[in-house]
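dumping this here so i dont lose it
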């Protein structure tokens, strides 16, 4: 066999090299060997985990293979987007060579994310020759899908638009940025929330899927914080350079800035102190401790020698958070200076929100004058001792609220005890055959079926209040034929009413029209000789009262509990009861005005409970102790903010080692 020439040997060697299966590098190896910082103080320099040691812990956890969902949050300007969004995207596109779905709140953001975040990072790397020369991403303009010359595709999908925009594309990898901006279902959507819909694009890959989510944390009920809490709830512990104990330092451990005379003094005095030995850390101490930090997951412990014990929670989600102590781009003086300035701000509430979210990576705590959103999962387990249909002993009144729709009539019954607490002892739905009978006849038949049901069960209801906003021409005569003193038509007034957004105005006196003035409701005689007494209800006020009572500890005066059942049996009810969220809206000349925003379409049992609670007040139900607590909780005159608890529940959750 003749000897091979030099060119032939080189070609054969090249062929042999390419025929070997290449080893996939870890994400950390890829980051440190391929990624060049596109902007900022380290522009043009290769990425190194040593600059921000938290990133090494993040990549090592991702590379471990223990989880297939990864949720991360940290301070702004600490490298969060590069570490948790850009690098995972580039790794799967170029190292693995596979298609990636990029989830964003709005498609208008796609061009910005591509032009300002992803493309600059690619152009700095050796993968710039894989950029498309034509089609999406090659020039300016709208970006939807970008196909690289290695065959991988970057597909942008948003939380806006129709649900079908997320239904026709599958991938093993989903990377979501600004997660909390996509946590609610689209208006009119019959499907799940937007992130869940995006995750469904990966279902075909089973446990091989890879889902990454990064976001600045918003509130405790936001998707990011919920995912962190339900996942590993990982925390970074640092060895103290003085005592050797591994400690978890948070906002309370940064001291020295509060009593400073000015911002310069605050920067000079601010420092972290060890929770174990109480000694001050210099910036050199802090950097060294972060370089030797360890990542602990929920239920894990670590001793002074660095030995970690405990297997951690059984979950498929890594919940990863770092804080100001781990952000080496900002010194203790920088953070202390920001704290001092925030403390002097005129808008203290907004400054506190910015510090928690952008510096400490903690959820914002709304002022105590806001109603904290209820969680459906919590309500499912909020139960009394009695079963369905059982009126508890000691009940003094029974009231029923009903909400009329086109195809369904929802109702809910509450028994009220002497201390003002309530028990939802039954609720249900009556189907309306509107397509066969027509809407008016179907509603009339449904109301009569509901009345027969109540009479058969002989609950002895004192009041049955029915929403007349949808079909008043049917509800009015039904209430008259049923006995106008117990069956009453109602009209809800408030910000959340889709039929009529007129705000409730409390009448000052009674007379020929206004016959009775109650607690955030009044009864008036309709004009035109209809012989009907209509109840007008301030639904904004009563939704606040109902949510407060659903949040009160069970057994306390004024609390509301559900009947005893398997929690999953209350799933639909709990979702109705949490379908609206309270906020304060500033109105010129009026100040902060309460407003209820609908976050889910199905809220009918919430409306029923509101009517039943208002009817209870009509019957004489009073919550004296709860009223005193509400007054005590209001901010003092002239104060900007009510006093805070020493530490939030969110911060305490991360305190537990």
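and the seq i came up w/
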């Amino acid at each position: 066999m003749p000897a091979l020439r030099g060119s032939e040997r080189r070609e054969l060697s090249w062929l042999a090299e390419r025929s070997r299966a290449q080893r996939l590098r870890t994400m950390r190896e890829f980051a440190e060997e391929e990624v060049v910082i596109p902007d900022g103080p380290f522009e043009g320099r290769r990425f190194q985990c040593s600059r921000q040691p938290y990133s090494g812990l993040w990549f090592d956890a991702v590379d471990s293979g223990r989880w297939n969902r990864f949720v991360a949050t940290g301070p702004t300007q600490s490298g969060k987007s590069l570490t948790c969004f850009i690098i995972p995207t580039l790794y799967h596109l170029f190292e693995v060579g596979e298609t990636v779905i990029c989830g964003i709140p709005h498609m208008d953001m796609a061009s910005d994310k591509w032009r300002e975040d992803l493309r600059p990072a690619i152009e700095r790397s050796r993968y710039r020759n894989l950029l498309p020369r034509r089609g999406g991403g090659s020039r300016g303009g709208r970006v939807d899908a970008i196909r690289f010359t290695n065959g991988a595709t970057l597909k942008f999908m948003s939380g806006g638009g129709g649900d079908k925009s997320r239904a026709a594309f599958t991938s093993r990898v989903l990377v979501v940025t600004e997660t909390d901006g996509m946590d609610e279902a689209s208006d009119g959507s019959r499907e799940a929330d937007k992130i869940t819909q995006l995750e469904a694009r990966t279902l075909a890959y089973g446990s091989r899927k890879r889902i990454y989510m990064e976001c600045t944390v918003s509130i405790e009920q936001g998707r990011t914080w919920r995912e962190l809490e339900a996942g590993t709830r990982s925390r970074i512990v640092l060895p103290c350079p003085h005592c050797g104990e591994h400690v978890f330092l948070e906002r309370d451990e940064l001291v020295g800035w509060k009593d400073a005379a000015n911002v310069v003094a605050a920067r000079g005095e601010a420092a972290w102190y060890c929770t174990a030995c109480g000694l001050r850390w210099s910036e050199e101490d802090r950097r060294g401790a972060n370089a030797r930090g360890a990542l602990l997951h929920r239920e894990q412990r670590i001793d002074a020698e660095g030995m970690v014990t405990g297997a951690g929670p059984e979950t498929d989600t890594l919940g990863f958070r770092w804080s100001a102590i781990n952000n080496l781009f900002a010194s203790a003086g920088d953070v202390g200076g920001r704290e001092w300035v925030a403390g002097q701000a005129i808008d203290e509430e907004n400054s506190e929100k910015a510090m928690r979210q952008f510096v400490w990576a903690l959820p914002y705590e709304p002022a105590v004058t806001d109603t904290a959103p209820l969680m459906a999962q919590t309500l499912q387990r909020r139960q009394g001792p009695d079963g369905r249909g059982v009126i508890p002993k000691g009940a003094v009144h029974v009231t029923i609220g009903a909400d009329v729709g086109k195809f369904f009539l929802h109702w809910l019954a509450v028994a009220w005890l002497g201390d003002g607490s309530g028990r939802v002892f039954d609720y249900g739905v009556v189907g309306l055959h509107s397509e066969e009978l027509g809407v008016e006849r179907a509603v009339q038949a449904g109301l009569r079926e509901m009345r027969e049901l109540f009479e058969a069960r002989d609950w002895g209801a004192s009041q049955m209040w029915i929403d007349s906003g949808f079909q008043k021409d049917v509800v009015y005569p039904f209430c008259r034929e049923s006995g106008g003193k117990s069956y009453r038509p109602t009209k809800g007034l408030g910000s959340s009413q889709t039929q009529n957004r007129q705000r409730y105005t409390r009448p000052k006196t009674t007379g020929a029209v206004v016959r009775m003035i109650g607690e955030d409701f009044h009864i008036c005689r309709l004009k035109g000789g209809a012989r009907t007494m209509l109840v007008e209800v301030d639904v904004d006020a009563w939704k606040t009262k109902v949510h407060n009572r659903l949040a009160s500890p069970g057994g306390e005066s004024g609390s509301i509990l559900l009947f005893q059942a398997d929690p999953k049996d209350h799933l639909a009810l709990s979702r109705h009861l949490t379908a609206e969220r309270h906020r304060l809206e500033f109105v010129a000349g009026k100040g902060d005005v309460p407003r209820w925003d609908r976050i889910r379409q199905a809220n009918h049992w919430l409306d029923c409970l509101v009517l039943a609670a208002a009817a209870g007040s009509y019957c004489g139900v009073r919550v004296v102790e709860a009223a005193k607590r509400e007054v005590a909780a209001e901010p003092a005159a002239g104060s900007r903010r009510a006093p805070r608890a020493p530490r939030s529940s969110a911060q305490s959750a991360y305190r537990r080692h």
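The chain has three domains: 23-230, 238-311+332-362+645-655, 376-622.
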